[in-house]
């Protein structure tokens, strides 16, 4: 299964809605290109909505770290929104929940 994305832009912010598997490599090149376009366009907050992503491997998680660093360098913010249980477990296992901005859909 491939990774699909749809971007919604509004007032200096963008949400990229993802669906499919988040595996990194060639499969996420479109996401990388879209993220670059948004940063170059001056977006100050870019949210990756993971609601419809059911799996992410270590390459995909590594891409999140690279996108986070690029956002910081561009004076922007990357937010990971609604990661599913499997994706969130991977992020927490690598202790990246201490680095990445994550918004879950679960009430506090």
Which descriptors apply to this entry?
5 strands; 108 residues; alpha/beta; 3 helices; 5-stranded mixed beta sheet
Q: Could you explain the architecture of this structure?
A:
With 108 residues, the protein is an alpha/beta fold. It is 34% helix and 34% strand. Strands 1-2-3-4-5 form a five-stranded mixed beta sheet. The longest helix has 16 residues.
Number of DSSP helical runs: 3
> Strand arrangement, largest sheet?
1-2-3-4-5
User: How many β-strands, per DSSP?
Assistant: 5
Radius of gyration in whole Å, from Cα?
13 Å
Largest sheet: 5 strands, mixed
Shape: globular
Assembly form of the protein: single chain
**Category by helix and strand content:** alpha/beta
Question: In a few lines, what is going on in this structure?
Answer:
The protein is 34% helix and 34% strand. It has 108 residues and is an alpha/beta fold.
Topology diagram in text:
Layout: E1 4-10, E2 13-22, H1 29-40, E3 45-56, H2 58-73, E4 77-81, H3 85-93, E5 101-103
Parallel strand pairs: 2-3, 3-4, 4-5
Antiparallel strand pairs: 1-2
């Amino acid at each position: 299964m491939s990774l699909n994305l749809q971007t919604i832009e509004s007032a200096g912010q963008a949400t990229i809605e993802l669906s499919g598997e988040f595996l990194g490599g060639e499969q996420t090149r479109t996401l990388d290109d879209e993220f670059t376009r948004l940063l170059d366009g001056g977006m100050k907050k870019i949210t990756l909505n993971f609601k419809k992503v059911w799996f992410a491997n270590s390459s995909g998680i590594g891409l999140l770290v690279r996108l986070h660093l690029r956002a910081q360098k561009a004076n922007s913010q990357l937010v990971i929104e609604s990661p599913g249980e499997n994706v969130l477990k991977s992020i927490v296992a690598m202790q990246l929940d201490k680095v990445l901005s994550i918004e879950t859909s679960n009430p506090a």
